[in-house]
Amino acid sequence: MNKLTINGSQFMLENRPIQIISGAIHYFRVVPEYWADRLMKLKACGFNTVETYIPWNFHEPYEGEFVFEGMADLEKFIQIAGELGLYVIVRPSPFICAEWEFGGLPAWLLADPRMHLRCYHLPYLEKVDAYYDELIPRLIPLLSTNGGPIICMQVENEYGSYGNDQVYLQYLKDGLIKRGVDVLLFTSDGPDDFMLQGGMVPGVWASANFGSQPTEAFRKLTEYQPDQPLMCMEYWNGWFDHWGEEHHTRPADDVANVLDEMMTVGASVNFYMFHGGTNFGFYNGANFQDKYAPTITSYDYDVLVSECGDITEKFHAVRKVIAKYVDLGPLELPEPIAKRNFGIVHMTEQVKLLSSLDSLSSPIQSTCPEPMERLGQNNGFILYSTRLTGPRPESRLNLQEVRDRAMIFVDGTYKGTIERWNPDQEVAFSVPPEGVTVSILVENMGRVNYGPHIKDPKGITEGVRFGQQFLYHWTIHSLPLDDFSNLSFEPSVQTLPNEPSFYRGEFMVDELADTFLNMKGWTKGVAYINGFNLGRYWEIGPQETLYIPGPLLRKGKNELIIFELHGCSAPEVMLQDYHVLNNRVDI
């Protein structure tokens, strides 16, 4: 039986010792056509294992509707890894963090305001069980004990950073076992007392997550788990970025030195990340410490293989360290993926959002401005409109509480923006005798993916007041922006500043290649290539371009649609052959 076991402080596989050298690649952040390329680069660097999370919301976006095709074809990704001779670590915890929308939890859980997350709460566990009944049987044939490449599986993810419900953790462990999981189970937590106390499970091997000071981290882990193999399950060799902040980097020699320190003592390691990929669509997460901070579209992470698959200096520095412990032979890499500059794309057609609402969704009448989840909406935008009688003197419009960013319109005229993270912003106006229509366009910029604030419903979560008076009876349009087939684009539409609009353009492609959409001159919005949501852009950076993998293009005519909230300097964009992440800062 090909099973990973523990013999004292040593991992054993196929009756021989093994030091796991793993790297994280998230299949859900990479187009399937490039899975083999990224995995071959992992193996070429000297790694013997690939690790991936499994995001629940990617596979069950709506309750009872499961998706395991295309970018969600988890089984195919694992099979490719196995065919390349790689072992696989999977982390199917209901919660994954990962700077991913809601930490991988599905938004529809929040339709029930009484729902408790990540604890022994039966309504929550019933949803987990239904998902696991669909997911786990797909993984069983891929376990190493059944001839597949999966050697171990995670029970929950960094749970000690969140809670201490041991009954819940035992329930998850038992659920995996009763569904036929017989490979090594593990937990992973930061090397702090409260994290290990809250996250460890009796009888389950524990690993630690950190980015530096491995001697200290392993010493703390050994206090709680003596005479067991040491492993850093998340070696943070890079970092993620928030909008409006710098692009984080870490020197390659520093990363290599910390790895060397771990390998010298025989510890196993999983690089988080080896290749980061992209938060396509609306799947970026957010953090909330002192304030809400959404993550950018790029998940480059400054790691060994860049967002578009390029080998970095860090790759060579790490491979040099691994070669001290493993006979790697000559470096053999797959053929480089072509990049092309396709030039300027003229966005020749437009249509305004506020004049297209009924083409995008059916209006809902509601006494109160309900959040997205209670209306069956996961992501995107939502528009609330109501009639306000007059006359009234100038007063402040109070949103309780907006999540996450709201543009305010009075009779279609833009009055200002209210952002969740900026409490000093306010919008005030007076009302004439005939009254006005107030419209509030709210953008869900990503649910919190870590910490105590993960219960993060979107839209307007409490109510709206003009002055001290609550406003009732709203018309609501859910705007997931996943279907533009009913939009009526027209040439040369005149738009005002801060008038949300869709722009459409076409360009020709003779040979498929990767390219990068340069959004310089545009303000904030979302871009789509041939109907595929590339993700968000925002002029505040650090990201200036959106990555377009070649497989998303077509030979011949291609369609680009941009939803712009505030306006652009000119209705054109550039498709160039390089990525731009500005304002670098070392971590």
Structural overview:
There is one protein chain. With 587 residues, the protein is of the alpha+beta class. It has 3 domains: 18-322, Glycosidases (TIM Barrel, Alpha-Beta Barrel), CATH 3.20.20.80; 343-351 and 487-586, Galactose-binding domain-like (Jelly Rolls, Sandwich); 357-479, Galactose-binding domain-like (Jelly Rolls, Sandwich). The chain contains 10 helices and 35 strands. The strands form 8 sheets. Strands 4-5-6-7-8-9-10-12 form an 8-stranded parallel barrel, surrounded by 6 helices. Strands 27-16-28-33-30-31 form a 6-stranded antiparallel beta sheet, with no helix packed on it. A hairpin with a 2-residue loop joins β24 and β25 (469-470). α8 (252-264) packs parallel to α9 (313-322). The longest helix is centred in the N-terminal third of the chain and has 18 residues, at 122-139.
Features:
6-stranded antiparallel beta sheet; 8-stranded parallel barrel; alpha+beta; Jelly Rolls; 10 helices; signal; 587 residues; 32% strand; beta-galactosidase; BetaGal_gal-bd; beta-galactosidase activity; TIM Barrel
Shape: globular
The count of helical stretches stands at: 10
Overall structural class, as computed from helix and strand content, comes to: alpha+beta
The CATH C-level class name of the largest domain: Alpha Beta
Keywords: Glycoprotein, Glycosidase, Hydrolase, Signal
GO molecular function: beta-galactosidase activity
Domain Beta-galactosidase 1-like first all-beta: 369-479
InterPro entries: B-gal_1-like, BetaGal1-like_ABD1, BetaGal_gal-bd, Galactose-bd-like_sf, GH, Gly_Hdrlase_35_cat, Glyco_hydro_35_CS, Glycoside_Hdrlase_35
